[in-house]
Automatic annotation (TrEMBL):
This is GTP cyclohydrolase 1. It catalyses: GTP + H2O = 7,8-dihydroneopterin 3'-triphosphate + formate + H(+). Homopolymer. The keyword Hydrolase applies. Keywords: GTP-binding, Hydrolase, Metal-binding, Nucleotide-binding, One-carbon metabolism, Zinc. InterPro entries: GTP-CH-I_C/QueF, GTP-CH-I_N, GTP_CycHdrlase_I, GTP_CycHdrlase_I_CS, GTP_CycHdrlase_I_dom. It is an enzyme of class 3 (hydrolase).
Length: 209
């Protein structure tokens, strides 16, 4: 059943990707949009220092939003069953997070802590970091990002429990509006056994410690 779900998820993701690519503007159109924004900001795109800026911005966008070209579930598809009977917590803390706020397109920077309780199979720890990167390199809000990381882990690995905590600072809060510095936001999602006491209390203490 899980294999069928993964195939269907991959088909849906591929179809969505094809649809987006079909309406995606060309590189020349994207660069023209950057020149328009430079004009709107009050500068002259033909100025020497800005001549190559549109091309640089488009290349940067390809990196910052590379997550749209990845299927997060497929990153977890290779799992391992030979774990020597290990059936306790797997925790990966302080995974660097780089994302972009979808409301103001300002930077989100922080760290993600992930824990799961295996159900016979485990996944390489680098894949957990890649999952965070793939979902982070999209236009996001922190609440949805937290849920997407946890839900993807739960769907693909089908573990006994999943816990995800994200702590991040938002430049849309520090560089504009109220301009508050040194403020971070904490979100979390607990699934399966981790949503129940006393496991809930235990896992939150471990991830926060």
């Amino acid at each position: 059943m899980l294999e069928s779900d993964q195939v269907m998820s991959s088909v849906v993701a591929t179809a969505a990707s094809v649809t987006v690519e079909a309406v995606r503007p060309s590189r020349a159109e994207a660069e023209a949009a950057v020149r328009t924004l430079i004009c709107w900001a009050g500068d002259e795109p033909s100025r020497e220092g800005l001549l190559a800026t549109p091309a640089r911005v488009v290349r940067a966008y390809e990196e910052w939003f590379s997550g749209y070209r990845q299927d997060p579930a497929s990153l977890l598809s290779r799992t391992f069953e030979e774990v020597g009977g290990y059936d306790d917590l797997v925790i990966l803390r302080d995974i660097p997070l780089q994302s972009t706020c979808e409301h103001h397109m300002a930077a989100i920077r922080g760290a993600v802590h992930i824990a799961y309780l295996p159900n016979r199979r485990v996944v390489g720890i680098s894949k957990l970091a890649r999952l965070v990167e793939a979902l982070g390199r999209r236009l996001q809000i922190q609440e949805r990002l937290t849920a997407e990381i946890a839900d993807t882990l739960a769907h693909v690995l089908q573990p006994h429990g999943v816990a995800v905590i994200v702590q991040a600072s938002h430049e849309c809060l520090s560089s504009r509006g109220v301009r508050l510095h040194g403020v971070s936001m904490l979100t979390r999602r607990l699934l399966g056994q981790f949503a129940q006491e006393p496991q809930r209390r235990e896992i939150l203490a471990l991830l926060a410690g």
